[in-house]
Amino acid sequence: MFAKYHYLNHSHNNAADVFVCTINNDIAGFFSVLPFPHPKLKNARKAHRIVVKPDYQGIGISKHFSEFICNYYKKLGKVLLLVTSHPALIYSLSKNKKWICTRKGRTAKNGKSSAMKNTSSSNRITCSFKYKG
Question: Which of 19, 55, 100, 116 is 20 to 30 Å apart from 38, CA to CA?
Fold first, then answer.
C-alpha cells in the first residue's frame, strides 16, 4: 500500500514493529521500527520506514506520529534512533527540542564516508537523530 510513496525498493523487514496512522478512518501514515544492535546504547531501536501519503504531507503528521511512537518506546525503556535524507524532516527534527542531531553530513559518490560505509545515500546529506523526549 505504501510502496509507491517510498523511495526504498527492497522488501520490508519482517522483524519490524509496524504502526499505522489513520485520519477519519483513512490510512494516512506508516512507521516501522527495528531492533538496532548498538555498541554503546542498550535497548536501541531504529526507525526503519516513515511514510505519509501525499494527501497528508506538509501538515506535521510525520512529526506527531514519530513522537507518539518514540514516547511509546521511551516508556518501554528503549532508545529510538532515526536516520534520514529527507530535507523537510531534517529541518523539522533539527528545530525540535525533543530530538538530538548526532550526525550530519554528505556521503561520497562511492557511498563511503568516515561516518557511513556502504550506504545507498550516495551524495545526499543524511542526518542521524536520537529521540530524547
Answer: 19
